[in-house]
């Protein structure tokens, strides 16, 4: 599987030039001239399986673009990490080797510092609060800000809240002490884990199952849908609902590709991305409930954290360390609370 992914990644670099030169048979020019009515076939990299809500959102997006360009722009969705793990995919999107992707804002923040604020623990009270912020001027500004990192943010998707799970019973904050916990590849996440007394092991998502199975790590953290669809629950049966983060998903396009599109195509793509959010969010809400029910039916022990104050106090050093960098955004997040 790994080998296959590496091969896919190498291949995508090789064909990248070809896709941009030919626009896949559509005659998009390489001179930088923006041709109206050009035909393209693009790829969209997605880490989740085909029926996962983000993948379904990607597909809705692709479908809308296809319809609204009368079949001129075809976006093929590659699910299940076929084109590589998120960090490697982001690098390829920066090069224009992969045109589109949907990734978590956490690894993305390693490429665009401004987005790091979205990984800070307990900054959103609820999904409603998060969405109020994401759809505000500041939320949109952050998507546009990806341009400084060779990408163009198109839309946010839902990802619920993240909580811890482990191979052995965890029922309180104290139980995390000394555990080796896998985190997404981001510095803020590593600091958060340390602040909670555990030991942070960053690793790509696709490697977590076997690391849990073999005991290389004691636990990890994610939302119900990922915990369920990745089968992590089969080897780590104890879930502690502390909801430490709400990290949105981001749908984005390579700036190298974006800059070659006509204004009309840009408009269609941006609008299609925004229109796909509704589908993704509806499917998310449904799948979040379904996966929780399936986890319970499979015998997973779910412990609710009734008082998050000790958790918030424990991660305060993380907020103190990064907060000043994000003063303006944190103010906007606070405003969205009211
Ligand atoms: C999931 C996100 C996915 C991340 C994964 C992770 O949807 O994009 O890759 O978490 O933990 O919730 O790496």
UniProtKB/TrEMBL annotation:
UniProt key word Endoplasmic reticulum = no
List UniProt keywords, sorted A-Z.
Signal
Signal peptide range in chain numbering: 1-21
Q: Which PROSITE patterns does this one have?
A: PROKAR_LIPOPROTEIN
Cross-referenced InterPro entries, in alphabetical order?
DctP_fam (IPR018389), TRAP_DctP (IPR004682), TRAP_DctP_sf (IPR038404)
Superkingdom of this protein's organism: Bacteria
Q: Does the keyword Cell wall biogenesis/degradation apply?
A: no
What's any GO biological process attached to this entry? transmembrane transport
Listed GO MF terms:
carbohydrate binding
* Entry GO CC: outer membrane-bounded periplasmic space
Query: What protein does this entry describe?
Result: TRAP dicarboxylate transporter, DctP subunit
Q: Which organism is it from?
A: Thermosinus carboxydivorans Nor1
